[in-house]
Amino acid sequence: MRATKEDDAGPGAVAERVDARGMRAWRGLLRAHAQVTRVLEAELEEAHKLPLASYDVLVQLAEAPNGALRMSELADAVLLSRSGLTRLVDRLVREGLVERQSCPSDLRGTLAVLTPAGLARLRAASGTHLRGVARHVLSRYSPTELELLGDLLGRLATPAEATGACGQEDRAIGGGPAA
Questions:
Q1: How open is the CA angle 165-166-168, to the nearest 5 degrees?
Q2: What does the radius of gyration of the chain's CA atoms come to, in whole angstroms?
Q3: pTM
Q4: Cα gap 11→150, rounded to integer Å
Q5: Where is the HTH marR-type domain (predicted)?
Q6: Cα 74–Cα 76–Cα 77 angle in degrees, nearest 5
Q7: Strand ranges across the sheet with 68-70
Q8: Each residue of 97-128: pLDDT tens digit?
Q9: Residue ranges of the chain whose pLDDT lies below 50
């Protein structure tokens, strides 16, 4: 990555271009994420002994075709590093919630596959999680505000585009073909 004159100007010059309204929005987003995540994590842990990251992995697998995703696709979907996901999946395998399988169409690839026990654990925890989301997030906004919030936050998100358990398709931001 090439440095620009803007980079050479130092952090003070950049900060001068970010107004108070922008910084309030940014800090509010960070605080809201941290606060809501902390509360949802605590609720899942208390009721089901299931960390939020584990719940997210189980959700991604349950929504995937055949309950399976390549480890690389799963890491992208749950926003973890490859090594972080490997450690998490190791724990889920030990608990019998996920199993690893070789990808039949690409023997270099490894699939994470949801087990029946994993699906049962997800189903047991989903009510707690969804009630928490409703209580701590959705109840604070009108339907119109939720629509707007979804649109605004959607602009920031780069979805992990999975094309199937063993298929790889490069995607650019916005879901179009990569350049």
A1: 105
A2: 19
A3: 0.76
A4: 31
A5: 26-158
A6: 65
A7: 68-70, 106-114, 98-103
A8: 999 999 888 878 899 999 999 999 999 999 99
A9: 1-3, 160-165, 167-179
Query: Which pLDDT score, from 0 to 100, does residue 175 have?
Result: 37
Measured between alpha carbons, how far is 164 from 73 in angstroms, rounded to an integer? 9
Distance, in Å, from the CA atom of 107 to the CA atom of 79, rounded to the nearest integer, reads: 24
Residue ranges covered by each domain of the chain: 17-153
CA-CA distance, 117 to 20, in Å (whole number)?
49
CA distance 86 to 81: 8
Nearest to 129 by CA among 42, 71, 67, 65: 42
d(CA 60, CA 74): 7
Helix (H, G, I), strand (E, B) or coil at 1: coil
* pLDDT given at position 15: 61
Q: Letter for the amino acid at 16?
A: E
User: Class of 17-153 per CATH?
Assistant: mainly alpha
List, as own/partner pairs, every contact residues 77-82 make where C-beta atoms lie below 8 angstroms and the sequence separation is at least 24, other chains included: 77/160, 77/162, 78/53, 80/53
Please state whether beta strands 106-114 and 98-103 pair in parallel, antiparallel, or not at all (unpaired). antiparallel
